[in-house]
């Protein structure tokens, strides 16, 4: 059942969040969620509102989606004044309706809030790391340690595993202090538990992205351990991209979202390749080419991550 209250014209942030909660929405949906469904649903979209139009008593807003995912006109009963200035970053709650498989999806605005306000709210209410469980993995019992053989046991939350990862990280980047290596390992494991992503995959990505250099900046402007772009930081409410915990929160969350986008897991090579392609080149490029983009950099990136991930998993 759809829960729709109020209009978009004079909503406060609290009213927007109440409408969001009433529809059981906790995060925005990719624009692809508007594709290939029949029926009616309410979802949240992240976009930039480029302008508005009123004609014959009917109003609409013109939006542009992140990462070159397209543009769209959205019907609106009323349009808030703050949305009418042009190029306004916003979150929109919309009702999407499609009567049959080949019909056009009709999208109507229910509520709107500034992106900065929602990003700040989400950062303040980010999920707390899962508590560590004092269990020992099979790999650890076999004596599989990163410092000896370059292998990392699958995370079960045992604090001793953090030390194994820290030793591996320190061994890979000897310029790190022991405390820096431990901080990275702790954040990798906590956010991996939180978002249910194999920590070894996260490690493989971090090696490929930055070689565990927290201050790394690429020529394209990607920053930190996971090489996050400014739009990633804005999206996730990250205030200091060079802060280890914040950067790895964004890195692991983004990996989880890409895995979810392609309905894959870290054990499905084909879906994992698509998720890694999206992390490297953006989901817009994956959509454009209907699969892995024909970029040499992206293909090499996937190969490097896969190779390292396989090495890390070889102790299982």
Structural write-up:
- The chain has 316 residues and is an alpha+beta fold.
- The chain has two domains: 13-124, OB fold (Dihydrolipoamide Acetyltransferase, E2P), CATH 2.40.50; 138-313, Orthogonal Bundle (Lysozyme), CATH 1.10.530.
- Helix content is 43%, strand content 16%.
- It contains twelve helices and five strands.
- It has a five-stranded antiparallel beta sheet with strand order 3-2-1-4-5.
- α6 (178-195) runs parallel beside α9, α10 (269-281) crosses α11 (283-289) and α10 crosses α12 (296-313).
- It is elongated.
- 40% of the residues are buried.
- Mean pLDDT is 82; it is low at 1-10 and 128-156.
Produce the secondary structure layout.
Blueprint: H1 13-22, E1 39-55, E2 58-64, E3 71-76, E4 88-98, E5 106-114, H2 115-124, H3 138-141, H4 146-149, H5 159-172, H6 178-195, H7 199-210, H8 230-236, H9 244-261, H10 269-281, H11 283-289, H12 296-313
Antiparallel strand pairs: 1-2, 1-4, 2-3, 4-5
